[in-house]
Write a structure and sequence with these properties.
The chain is an alpha+beta fold. Helix content is 49%, strand content 11%.
């Protein structure tokens, strides 16, 4: 005659076979399939509740040399840490949380809810009497049909505020102070090149400092609309990275950074004589030793205090030039007054986050003046910086209307085959329109032609 355990196992196997057959009948019916999933979850939760009770029985049997956790792990179905955690939970359910154990076996709470409640009650900052613990369990079980596991854990952790608010407040204040000291001691910021054109930034800050930093980044995060005309839809992480670049631009332009070696902080770019003569077509190298693309070097040269160190073939210093070819304060003030921020259509970057851009590049003979300059955020500056190695038809062109002095942008043909000039909405709202009968000359020196 079969024992009860063997008979029960066969019955469970039969039930599982029926469930597998039922899964075939609900194909193509999402509502019916989810209903079956919900019923399966309830059955599995109840089985797990029974499993906890069996683990407790095995633990209480006290057989010499028997480690329940190790026996569980020897099946290779669970990790060693999971087996130990389950045995501890089984004991806690019996000793301290019998109401949760019963509700779990009855299917009133799910496995995840039961584990969350126990975890929350175990982390209470006060020691509860058995009666108080039972009251807490009963209240939390009553919320099981309205709160998910994460919410139940939060409520469980806050039970102490109801039972003993004064002591809970004192203990919570102590915990917060301890966490603050630990967070301060662990503060760190690591910035290293990944040797593939990027800098890796990782670190951690105390919560107050981090929140201040996050608030500033959120305020500077570009809107999704500012990327739409560029043909790019970056995710939130990429937009936050652009916000960090904006933040750095604002700080750098403030003039309030402390001096380094008697001078303001600056980025040093080293390039060979041929690279300078050929319009910086060749690769350049930053002071940190990492290579910089020619396009990035051209962008930096638009609006920066540049001290070029020109090297000959044997790396001897040929010339250390003085700071030049950047937009002066009066010119920048005029650009701010005219442009009021990044002038790329759709962008919302404020003037402080913008760089000056030569519409006709300085390295191509362009002058540094209001008529040859516009304000652009770093992202759009990089987008429109001309590349002498590419066709003008596949690049953005910036045109200055001689009548109004406003900048118009001609998109590349892959974005707009007609290449119709576009103006920022802040100027369009003032009734500005292209000169009548004008066409864009998208040559090296952008102008309007009647």
């Amino acid at each position: 005659m079969k024992d009860i355990a063997e008979a029960g196992s066969e019955q469970l196997g039969a039930v599982l076979d029926e469930v597998a057959a039922l899964a075939v009948t609900v194909r193509g019916n999402a509502s019916r399939a989810l209903e079956v999933v919900s019923r399966i979850d309830r059955l599995c939760d109840r089985l797990q509740g029974v499993r906890m009770n069996l683990l407790l029985e095995a633990q209480l049997s006290g057989e010499p040399g028997l480690s329940v956790a190790e026996r569980l792990h020897s099946t290779n179905r669970v990790s060693r840490s999971s087996s130990r955690r389950d045995v501890r939970l089984a004991c806690d359910l019996s000793d301290r949380f019998p109401l949760i154990a019963q509700a779990w076996r009855d299917g009133v709470v799910s496995e995840s809810q039961a584990r969350a409640i126990v975890a929350g009650l175990k982390h209470l900052p006060v020691v509860l009497t058995r009666l108080q613990l039972e009251e807490c369990q009963a209240e939390l079980i009553a919320f099981a049909d309205r709160l998910d596991p994460d919410e139940l854990r939060v409520v469980a952790e806050r039970m102490a505020e109801v039972i003993d608010p004064e002591r809970a407040e004192a203990l919570e204040a102590g915990r917060i102070e301890r966490d603050a000291r630990i967070a301060h001691a662990r503060r760190a910021l690591v910035v290293v090149p990944d040797h593939h054109g990027s800098m890796l930034i990782r670190g951690q800050l105390p919560i107050a400092d981090g929140e201040l930093f996050l608030t500033q980044l959120t305020a500077l995060t570009p809107s999704a609309a500012s990327y739409r005309l560029a043909g790019e839809l970056p995710d939130r992480q990429a937009r936050r990275a652009d916000a960090l670049v904006r933040w750095c631009s604002i700080v750098a332009a403030s003039g309030e950074l402390p001096a380094v070696g008697g001078d303001r902080p600056q980025v040093l770019v080293t390039l060979g004589l041929d690279a300078l003569v050929q319009g910086m077509r060749a690769g350049t190298v930053l002071a940190c030793g990492e290579p910089l693309s020619a396009g990035e070097a051209r962008r930096l040269s638009c609006d920066a205090h540049i001290t070029p160190t020109v090297l000959g073939g044997a790396s001897e210093v040929l010339d250390v030039g003085r700071t030049h070819r950047f937009f002066t304060r009066p010119i920048r003030a005029a650009l701010v007054l005219r442009d009021q921020g990044c002038v790329f259509p759709g962008c919302d970057a404020p003037p402080a986050a913008c760089e000056g851009h030569h519409t006709r590049p300085w390295w191509a003979g362009g002058t540094t003046c209001v008529a040859n300059g516009v304000l652009l955020c770093p992202y759009h500056h990089r987008l429109v910086e001309p590349d002498p190695n590419k066709s003008e038809q596949v690049q953005w062109q910036v045109l200055i209307d001689p009548g109004t002095g406003l900048p118009w942008f001609v998109p590349p043909r892959q974005i707009d085959p007609l290449r119709a000039p576009r103006l920022h909405h802040r100027f369009l709202l003032n009734g500005t329109s292209p000169p009548t009968g004008a066409t864009a000359d998208v040559g090296t020196s952008p102008v309007w032609r009647s």
